[in-house]
Amino acid sequence: MKKSVILLILLMSLSFLSQAQLNIFKQDSVSIGKSTYPAQLSLGGAIRLNYSWKTYDEDLKKRGGDFGFELFRLEADGECGNIYFSIQYRWYEYFNAIHHGYFGYHLTPDLDLEIGIHQVPFGILPYASHSFWFGATYYLGFEDDYDAGIKMIWRKENWTFHAAFYKNPEYIDNSRLGRYSFDLVTKETQQNGETNQGNLRVAYDLKPVEGMVLNVGASGEYGGIWNGTTKKTGSRYALALHADWRYKDWNLQLQGIRYHFNPVNPEDVAENTIQYGAFMDPFMVAVDASVITFNVAKKIPINCKIIDNITIYNDFSIVTPSGENTQNSIQNVTGCLVVKKGLYLYIDWISGQNMWFAGGPGIGLDHEGWDDWKGRLNVNFGYFFSSQGCR
Predict the structure, then answer these.
(1) Which residues of 138-152 are buried (b: 16+ CB within 10 A; e: fewer)?
(2) What domains, with CATH codes, occur in the chain?
(3) Is it the case that residue 143 has pLDDT exceeding 50?
(4) What predicted TM-score, i.e. pTM, was given to this entire model?
């Protein structure tokens, strides 16, 4: 009941703000003391419904799949002079969680400083995928991951540099499974959590012909693994080379990642796997692996009464672990995104071999039937709204 009242108040506030725009943001500037700064505020959100059908769920197949509420979210972005902020909070069917929340400062025209819960600068940004389902890198915490820390962003001509330090994930409580970002989580004998993580990323835009951009770069990540049972800190690292090619309505993405986790577990806990979790579920992951991502997409302008454009895509990723009792994990998503202003429709067919969220028990694990292919149809309907007008 309490959460419903809070949600109702937020909805009423959003409706009011979208019409009134707040007096200080209704103008092009705001006065603070004797100084005047440009100011703006944007409020928005989304509501999404989801249909799912799985080859590996007999009950679901018999009833023809499930369709229902998936997400409601609210967000705000603002700027006043050199200071800006961004926040987004999400309500899912079974939990609610912060997506991101930070404030920033434009130190110079080329240099920004951000503090809070923000996207970790690693690999292809902002996403190493096109589908609603993301790629294997998302479930390993290397895509669209948000942690709590400080980040510097420097842009100069065709160069972009990121340097960041994260004290811990977005939630200090490592046992919390209700989270958007995939992190190390604790449950029962698995007591490892992320701490003191550093990130460096460099990227360069090559522009060989007009209308073509090839963004190439490298990323590095190093951090600690705190074990709540042994009270000792292990280590982890990840390295990536990445390329994001865009020409007219085509997009090609290629990325290679090498990661390794070295936890300090008790003697009775295996060290060849480690526990990840998000969306209320924990699962095990191989501690040492390479990840290859290869994606292709084509945007097709339609510009008719009911459709603005359609993007068709195929996102492929494979995880090849090292060590005993491990096997490859593969995920391939073929689908399309249909857009009409603020209406978004994702239609995805997800094929997985030994892959979490596609019928597998985890990522990179050895188990009976690991080489079986499983699939699921996912159709997501969403409307994204904003005080600035239709998206």
Answers:
(1) bbbbbbbbbbbbebe
(2) 37-386 (2.40.160.10)
(3) yes
(4) 0.91
